Amino acid sequence: MAETAAPSSTAVGERPLKAMTKAGFADRERLLARVMLLPSIVYIVALVAIPFFVAIAYSVSDVTTGNASYDFVGLRQYRTIVEDAVFRKALWNTLIFTALTMVLVVVFGKILALVLTSEFRGKWVVRFLVLLPWTTPVALATVNWLWLLDSLFSPIDWLLRQYGLLGDPSALFGASQHLTYLGKPHLAQASVIAVQAWRLIPLAAVIMMAGITAIPHELHDATEVDGAGAWRSYWEVTFPLTLPIMAVATLFGAILTFTDMTVVRVLTNGGPLHSTEVLASWAYTKGIGGGDLGQGAAIALFLFPLLLAAAVLILQAVKRMEVL
Amino acid sequence: MTVAATPTSAATVERRTGLSVEVRDLVKRFDGHDRAAVDGVSITTEEGEYLVLLGPSGCGKTTLLRMIAGLEHQTSGDVLIGGDVVNGLPPRARRIAMVFQSYALYPHKTVRDNISFPLRAAKIDKAEQQRRIGWAAELLGIGRLLDRRPRHLSGGERQRVALARALVREPSVFLLDEPLSNLDAKLRTSARDDLREFHDRVGTTTVYVTHDQVEAMGMGDRIVVMLDGQVRQIGPPVEVYEHPADIFVATFLGSPPMNLVRRDGAIVGFRPEKMLPASVLGGRTDGHVVTHLDVHRIEHLSGDRHLHGTLTGLGEPTQVIVRLPATVLVPIDTGTTVDMVVRESDLRFFDASTEKAAPAVPLGDVHG
Fold first, then answer.
1. Does any CB of chain A come closer than 8 Å to the CB of residue B97?
2. Prior bond to B90 cis, omega within 30?
């Protein structure tokens, strides 16, 4: 017994030593780190960095789809677009749509997050339903909304008529049978904002839920023992502690709204009368639709300073979360 | 300019005896659990008493404390504070203050704002707030920390801030949930002294939860030993240690725990420090039981010798640990068998089936 055990134990002892002299690929951390990073670096360079610098180069040139020869024209493209009333409308719309969408997203996202973190029966079903808008592709969801807001067949109009709010001289929304949401400038703008908010609220709610559940339970116990009511407990403890993550949710939402052209493109195509035009849709219309790559690039670059500011603010909020 | 009388910390501590806390047949069942977390507990504290709830984790001691605080609602039974039933009252109306295991300081507030939080919640005016903050800060020696945030404090400092926050409300009962478990071993010893001294100065009734028998023995006026949601024994530390009500208490308290030896359907127990080499008595073994210890291993711990070995002569041969104090100089070697004695009055008897303490049985002549 002892004789057979002895050789086998030395053999087992030798094996790891041999293996250790030659470190495997998985043990070479520096190399491994670089290989792991490579796909994302390729992705960022190919799809973010190169297009960004090409856009800067185009914005100071007269390149069009018809004439691809590169001629430097300085800031002429910028002067042209700034003088254009549609551009100014698109810039203003982009800012206003984003701001109003964010107000809705923060308010309703926060309420949803508070509802979803409380205990009630059927919580999982509600959570699932709430998340659905976020999982639906933007374009498909917007097509859905296109039907909901249809000038003739809108079920929203139908509901309003059923409740006597529409289609009667004394009704709240007037005597007309249809509100034609996407046909009137203000209603069209409101529709775009509503759809943007609808698709971003779930994301914001989930981020804020994470923030609320990250607060240690003993802190809530402490506020209760310390005699604070629900109001004081929320505003003095829960709110300040979730503020950084709310900022992150808001800024993410702002970036997504700010750069989005799908909703406008599908819902209104910028109309009526350019009343829902935003920078992204106008850059597309000018640059791709109209073939003026230089102008399209110059319009799109107006997004950059605001995106940069948002990114800096996100990083600051994350830093604040780390030190809390 | 008139010079206001600056109170010194010792002088301003006004001793309040605090209110008594009583629980009657308290039961707590959590949804989805078969076993009750707290299973019919009845305890009454004296006014100003320091009562320690001791037990292994999961024994229901924290749940019991949270029910006294009003953070958890009992399934049945009553909680009384100062003789009044407080069952339906929220924590803020129970005149209690609680210190949590994690201290639960508000991380975004300064120490000053942490301490003033309960005062602002109680709508106490600014001047009085300042007076109380100053008083608590001086009492606990945290005056220089008032403008810092919790993350810049050490564990011991956080504990003091948590105490200060509990103190400024001038509660009638302090509820402490393992407040020392986040401190390192060295700090824990001094914090233990501080906490007890603080209690003696303030005089408020205190209910203290711990799983650490050293804390319980050292701090409590009385100890409540709990297991599986039930009280196993209540009594002063010495009584619980010397006369454990059952085998669980006998082995949970003491380090090393009580030695237990099977004998004729009963269980005989003795504390490790109660056994000595027979040679120490110089042949006068009246009132002692003579046994034999086959020594396997000797450990030297803080000057004491811990003898690990097999004991014969008291009952069935059993593995035991004997702690010889540093003052016993009898040479003992590993591998030898030594005659050991234990005073008959130091033996404890337990029923083998119920594991409860049983009356002493005369051992007569014992032969190994």
1. yes
2. no
Residue B69 or residue A117, greater confidence: B69
| Helices B185-202 and B155-167, axial angle in degrees (round to 10) | 20
Least confidently predicted of A16-25, A157-166, B133-142: A16-25
Tokens 């989005």 map to which residue? A260
Q: Please report the pLDDT score of residue A23 as a whole number.
A: 65
- Closest-CA distance, A107 to chain B, in angstroms, reads 23
Q: Out of A225, A232, A241, whose CB is closest to B69?
A: A225
Q: What is the C-alpha separation between A153 and A182, in angstroms, rounded?
A: 13
B71–chain A Cβ distance below 8 A for any pair: yes
| Strand, coil or helix: B338 | strand
For the record, the structure tokens of B164 come out as 């200060």
- Residue B73 tokens, joined: 């609602």
Q: How many CB pairs under 8 A join A and B?
A: 61
For residue A223, which residues of chain B lie inside 8 Å, CB to CB?
A: 117
Q: Is residue B142 scored above 50 in pLDDT? A: yes
The Cα–Cα gap between B266 and B83 comes to 43
Other CB atoms within a 10 A radius of the CB of residue A156 amount to 13
Q: Could you say which DSSP state residue B25 is in?
A: E
Distance CA B14, CA B290 (A): 55
Three-state SS at B100? coil
Residue B244 and residue B41: Cα distance in Å, rounded? 19
| ipTM summary value | 0.79
Nearest CA in chain B to A322: B151
Q: How far apart are CA A92 and CA A196, in angstroms?
A: 17
Closest-CA residue to B255 (of B212, B319, B196, B298): B212
> B169 — contact with chain A (CB < 8 Å)?
yes
Determine the longest span between alpha carbons in chain A, in angstroms.
106
Using CA atoms, how far residue B8 sits from B135, B157, B162, B165, in Å, is 9, 21, 22, 20
Residue of A218, A223, A226 to mutate when probing chain B, most B C-beta within 10 A: A226
Per-residue pLDDT tens over the stretch B257-282: 999 999 888 899 999 999 999 988 88
Q: What is the 3-state secondary structure (H, E, C) of B221-290?
A: CEEEEEECCEEEEEECHHHHHHCCCEHHHHHHCCCCCCEEEEECCEEEEECHHHEEEHHHHCCCCCCEEE
CB contact under 8 Å between A225 and B71, yes or no, is yes
% residues pLDDT > 70 (chain B): 94
Determine whether the interchain pair B121/A324 forms a contact, defined as Cβ–Cβ distance below 8 Å.
no
Residues B220 and B61: their CA atoms lie apart, in Å, by 15
- Cβ-contact B69, B175 below 8 angstroms: yes
